Amino acid sequence: MRIDDEVEVLVRAVLDAAVHRDADRFDSALDALGSSPERLTKAVELTLAVNAAVLFEVHDGPPSHQQVNALARDISHQEQWAEVSVQDVHALLIAVTAGKPVPVLTNAAGATAVFVVAANLLATASQPDQGEWWFNYLDKVEAAIEAAG
User: Which of 85, 121, 130, 147 has the most Cβ atoms closer than 10 angstroms to its Cβ?
Assistant: First the structure.
């Protein structure tokens, strides 16, 4: 996947707001993405690829159904500020794990879940105690996504 530099900057702004659980900044960053349907589509595609890459790396391959269930509950609970439901997070994780279209993108809450889940996965999978903050980890994930084609 070729990552559009302009879209990547906007996605980072959304993810940064989500990592910091700043609802106002998150909404503003999403609004900036949503001003162009093409840009929003590219942003969602990139963020779904990030979700898949982190999810598969953390679990050394696809997570089990039990892991997906637990992760959906944990993320929904941890990200209450964004009002992402367990059902939307679960649907997103199942689709990403199976490499299928994401059904939750048909509603605004589901689209929000794509970014909130990515922010959560990046923040929890990075190693800040070893100097690898979520944004450094995102650099590595994006490099792997681009290298994979």
Answer: 121
Q: What is the DSSP string of 93-147?
A: HHHHHHT---GGGGSHHHHHHHHHHHHHHHHHHSBGGGTB-HHHHHHHHHHHHHH
Q: Is the separation of the CB atoms in 122 and 18 below 8 Å? A: no
Do residues 114 and 51 lie in contact, with contact meaning Cβ atoms separated by under 8 Å? yes
Q: Say which residues have a Cβ less than 8 Å from residue 142's Cβ, sequence separation at least 6.
A: 3, 8, 46, 50
What is the pLDDT at residue 109?
58
Within the chain, which residues score under 50 in pLDDT?
none
How many Cα neighbours within 13 Å face the side chain of 20? 13
Residue 101's φ and ψ, nearest 5 degrees, are: -60, 145
Q: Which residue type occupies 107?
A: N
State residue 91's pLDDT score. Answer: 92
Q: What is the chain's percent helix, strand, coil content, to nearest 5?
A: 80, 0, 20
